[in-house]
């Protein structure tokens, strides 16, 4: 090549990268045995739909070892005699403990309901009780 001849240009990358399959983030939703994917509800279906009920979530903090132990109890113990989800297991264990407390502390009667967010941490309750007792003296 002479000094006057320009070097060939490098090939240009495509304007858009090749289209790759988009990974699914959700399984297709099906209703009943039709095997057809669910479509968007019509206006009438949306109006007729009953409002969803809050299932009343309750959470607990555990160490990883405690959580592992709970999962093992579900998988290796509870499922031997019962069928159901992990949530069913947790609910049964908690309700069993609540029934025991009601028998021991409230003559077997259910306590009045406490709304979500109204449960106070024990230490905060103890501090409030001490302040109230000091104010009454």
TrEMBL record:
<protein>
    <submittedName>
        <fullName>Uncharacterized protein</fullName>
    </submittedName>
</protein>
<feature type="compositionally biased region" description="Pro residues">
    <location>
        <begin position="8"/>
        <end position="21"/>
    </location>
</feature>
<feature type="region of interest" description="Disordered">
    <location>
        <begin position="1"/>
        <end position="57"/>
    </location>
</feature>
